[in-house]
């Protein structure tokens, strides 16, 4: 596959959603959790969505419970929590795995396209590595919740940002693709 448009994901109601529905848009794909130190990033994600949705920007939220069980709710419960607590209006999908044998094919693809996080903070990234000790990781694996993949209008992955990078810190990269 040479872009994200060949993948299908499930929404919180279990319906298949082809990513070709997002063709021609700039997309930010994020694995999230509701009980994570980075969960307040939902506010900045919504800020970006509010600013740029009219210009063809989408955020695809993929809850993931692989990092210390920080997303224990169902996908629909997570969507409700995020709408209520953070005012999110972008799409939350069903929970998925992003690493390991059960990793969703979309995330397998994303990680092969951008195997390393850009940016990051040395101290925070070091703490994330400590937190994930004992977890077997392969090259390119997601290190924690709120890793962000930026995709251009052609469906190509252009960047991967560390969990410690705040969404507003990547606003310039988003604007450049819009």
TrEMBL record:
Keywords: Oxidoreductase, Peroxidase. InterPro entries: Glutathione_peroxidase, GPX_AS, GPX_CS, Thioredoxin-like_sf. One of its GO terms (biological process) is cellular response to oxidative stress. The active site is at 36. GO terms for molecular function: peroxidase activity. Coiled coil: none annotated. The keyword Nucleotide-binding does not apply. Belongs to the glutathione peroxidase family. This is Glutathione peroxidase.
């Amino acid at each position: 596959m040479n872009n994200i448009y060949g993948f299908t994901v499930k929404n919180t109601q279990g319906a298949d959603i082809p990513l070709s529905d997002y063709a021609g848009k700039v997309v930010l794909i994020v694995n999230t959790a509701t009980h994570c130190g980075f969960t307040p990033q939902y506010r900045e994600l919504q800020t970006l969505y509010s600013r740029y949705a009219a210009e063809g920007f989408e955020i695809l939220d993929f809850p993931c419970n692989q990092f210390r069980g920080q997303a224990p709710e169902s996908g629909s419960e997570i969507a409700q929590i995020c709408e209520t607590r953070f005012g999110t209006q972008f799409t939350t999908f069903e929970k998925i795995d992003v690493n390991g044998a059960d990793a969703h094919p979309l995330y397998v693809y994303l990680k092969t396209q951008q195997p390393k996080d850009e940016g990051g903070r040395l101290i925070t990234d070091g703490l994330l590595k400590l937190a994930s000790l004992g977890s077997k990781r392969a090259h390119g694996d997601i290190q924690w919740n709120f890793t962000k993949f930026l995709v251009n209008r052609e469906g190509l992955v252009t960047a991967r940002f560390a969990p410690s990078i705040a969404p507003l810190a990547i606003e310039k990269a988003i604007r450049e693709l819009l």
